[in-house]
Amino acid sequence: MDILENPVLLVLLGAGISLVTSVVVTALHARQIRRAELRTGTRTSARNLTSAFIAERDGDGDKTEFLREAELTVMSMTDRKTRERLGEVVRLLREHELPEVEQLSGVGSATAKRVLCDHALDVLGAHLRSDRLPEVPDTMRKMLSVEEEALSIHSGETPKVAAPIEKSAVTPRPRHTGGGAKTTPARKTTKTTKTAKPAGKSGARTSTSTADTAATGEKEKESAFWDD
What we know:
The chain is an all-alpha fold. It has helices spanning 2-5, 7-58, 63-75, 80-95, 99-105, 109-129, 138-154, 176-227. The protein has eight helices and no strands. The radius of gyration is 52 Å and the shape is elongated. It is 80% helix and 0% strand. Helix 2 (7-58) runs antiparallel to helix 3 (63-75) and helix 2 (7-58) packs antiparallel against helix 6.
């Protein structure tokens, strides 16, 4: 209640609120202006690039000047995906006439130039319409895949050969024939053991017959004694 009754404090409070509101509104307005300027600059750059790519595709412009201006314009674009895609196109346009690129990719310089320029125009059109970027054409994929190797060969460097894959040592497994050879003696010993048993029985029978012969001889001696 004391603050509301004090006019000086009320004036200071109102001034503070007005100052904060003014700062916030000014910052938001400056941010919107900066975004609008960036958007306008990006659209202007996209239109300039569109004209430059059309002239390059039709062969009406200077290649060196076109590549320099295109590279600078692409670097100033705010959209990251569009900037990266157009950067790849500009880089391949600078290298598409190298014999190494043509031999490794199998794409002629005239065909590569037309395909790259058409793809750049498609990307710029999608960017201006705020649509999704188109897919990378197969010709451009081939050129990107051999780009590093072609530049290495062109600069005189020997391309690195991938190291052969070392195979792990294979543990030898016992074969079925080896297992059969090992088990064969066991079977022979088993048969030998079985055949040894009848030998024991014949020995017992022999001892029994010997005892019977001895008993018969004693009986004959006794009968001979009584006969005498």
